[in-house]
Design a protein that fits this description.
This protein is of the alpha+beta class. The protein has a single domain, classed as Alpha-Beta Plaits. The protein is 27% helix and 29% strand. Strands 2-3-1-4-5 form a 5-stranded antiparallel β-sheet, covered by helices on one side. It is elongated. The N and C termini lie far apart (59 Å). 17% of the residues are buried. The model has no long low-confidence stretch (mean pLDDT 92).
Length: 135
């Protein structure tokens, strides 16, 4: 086996930001298609790269949020400081929060989380809680 040894290394400061978005419209239990969220994310990424020359790479995973009887499918959208297109932490955070706000409105989410390396940001429209969550 011939292992290539002339690769270059480029290191940047680690910074991550994740958006947690439910895959149900409000608390209706009506599903949101995963592909719809990914399509919207792709359009937002393209718009940001074209207008601001910022490239926000994302990994999308389907997860299940579980809390006191509630089991709700979610997408976790992970952004990182990709060394090919490095950004300052505040730029990543600001853009990810803007993306979260857009997705929140587009997909009728009452609440959405942005979790970064240094803090957790909860965005919400009201204090309402999913009725499936049992005290």
């Amino acid at each position: 086996m011939n292992i290539q040894t002339n690769s270059k290394e480029k290191k940047v400061k680690t910074f991550q930001a994740s958006i947690f978005i439910g895959l149900e419209i409000g608390y209706s239990q009506k599903p949101i298609e995963e592909d719809s969220v990914i399509q919207s994310l792709s359009e937002l990424q393209k718009e940001i790269s074209e207008h601001k020359n910022l490239f926000l790479s994302a990994a999308v995973s389907k997860i299940l949020i579980v809390l006191n009887g509630q089991k709700e499918p979610h997408l976790k959208i992970d952004f990182l400081n990709y060394p090919k297109f490095p950004l300052e932490e505040n730029v990543i955070k600001d853009e990810v929060v803007k993306i979260a706000k857009h997705l929140m409105q587009e997909f009728y989410q009452n609440r959405i989380l942005v979790v970064t390396t240094d803090e957790t940001i909860m965005l919400e429209f009201s204090e309402d809680i999913d009725p499936r969550i049992k005290n």
